[in-house]
Amino acid sequence: MGKFNVVLYEPEIPQNTGNIARLCACTGASLYLVGKLGFALTDKYTKRAGMDYWENVDLHRINSMDELFKEFPQGKFYYLTTKSKKKYTDIEFEENDFIVFGPESRGLPQEYVTQESAITIPMQEGQRSLNLSNSVAIVAYEIIRQIGL
Fold first, then answer.
1. What does the alpha-carbon distance between residue 86 and residue 126 come to, in Å, rounded to a whole number?
2. Pairing between strand 30-34 and 98-101?
3. Residues 39, 90: Cα–Cα separation, whole Å
4. What is the C-alpha to C-alpha distance for residues 41 and 28, in angstroms, rounded to an integer?
5. DSSP code string of 25-85
6. How far apart are CA 81 and CA 87, in angstroms?
7. CA 86, 38, 103: angle at the middle one, nearest 5?
8. Which of 35, 56, 61, 97 has an alpha carbon 20 to 30 Å from 71's alpha carbon atom?
9. Model confidence pLDDT, tens digit, residues 67-107
10. pLDDT tens column, 52-74
11. What is the largest CA-CA distance in the chain?
């Protein structure tokens, strides 16, 4: 399976992070948790949602997006937001790309959602957003469809 990276910027809900960790274990994606977390990784809800998959997750704890950018200066980053018109299906993903998701209550900061690499998952007009773990799964499996198993 081709390798890619999931970035959760300041995630707030432990169950979502646990579900995403399980997805990363099952797809071979690396998981980067960036900034302040709204929970402890030892939280029972995080552990329960990730079940016994946590030991198979390539997990990285990073203090800031700037630190992540410095670690991967050649990395291609895509920022998921409801504020873009560019669909995630319009992107030609490559191995080692980063898909970046913001906190559940507010999304990514403005500096990311206005970039050329900001992308969206289409949904009905008037709806605020999809669940974070569902959004990660949708884009992750598009990457897998494109780069192959």
1. 18
2. unpaired
3. 34
4. 20
5. HHHT-EEEEES--SS-TT-HHHHHHHGGGGGG-EEEEES-HHHHHHH-TT--EEEE-TT--
6. 10
7. 10
8. 56
9. 999 999 999 999 999 999 999 999 999 999 999 999 999 99
10. 778 889 999 999 999 999 999 99
11. 40
Q: What is the domain-level CATH number for residue 82?
A: 3.40.1280.10
The token duo for 44 is 């029972």
Contact 22, 136 (CB under 8 A): no
The reported pTM is 0.93
Sort strands 118-119 and 77-80 into parallel, antiparallel or unpaired.
Answer: parallel
Give the C-alpha separation, 37 to 45, whole Å: 14
Domain containing 34 equals 5-147
Residue at 69: amino acid letter = F
